[in-house]
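[Primary structure, fold]
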Amino acid sequence: MTTKPKDRSGAWADFGTGVLAWISGAAVLGFGAWLLFGQPDLTGASNGDRQTRTSQRPVQYVDEEYEPSDQEIEEAVQESREKVFGKGWSCFYDPTMNENWHDDVRCTNGAKSYRPILLADRGFVTEEDMRAAGQDYENHLNSGVKP
């Protein structure tokens, strides 16, 4: 016994294939427009904003044969260090696990760090004493004295 395919004539006969063709065509046209007019900026700025931001930057021409002096290199390193770590020395209370209470302050200046011995003439010091001595020592270092 053979079965005959159902007769699909009428108003709904080509509905499924028509919808599928319409969706496929819209997807192809949308993708083509996306490629033609540029992809969206995924960072949230529009193309106009991006052009404005880049046009505000000054153009710097670099001489390929230019060699910076040692002083210029040191100034650039110091400027970078100040941007990252801040300017000057910073001393803060940082207790150690040793028996010496006089080195419980750490002083840093960018990547440089050390522990000064403060209030060495006292036999016993408190945390408050060390914090105050650390603040005084920070002011002393920032006045231009090298550690």
